[in-house]
Specification:
- By secondary structure, the chain is an alpha+beta fold.
- Strands 1-3-2 form a three-stranded antiparallel β-sheet.
- It starts with a strand and ends with a helix.
Length: 65
């Protein structure tokens, strides 16, 4: 199991452009049970994903998408 902590390196305005694609990405990995939970950080400077994948290599491949 892994906790992925994401910190944005571009403006929130730029992040918002990709939100629909991001939601589809998350849904894909919720459906195959790789992700357990996710959400934005407060304040909104990034996000967090809780993954039940056991392989760091496998998780890195998914995150590279």
């Amino acid at each position: 199991m892994f906790i992925v902590s994401i910190t944005y390196i571009v403006s929130l305005e730029e992040i918002e452009k990709y939100l629909p694609l991001h939601i589809k990405y998350l849904e894909k990995y919720y459906k195959n049970k790789s992700f357990i939970a996710s959400g934005p950080k407060v304040p909104r400077i990034g996000g967090v994903i809780l993954s039940k994948i056991n392989s760091k290599v496998e998780l890195e491949k998914i995150l590279a998408e």
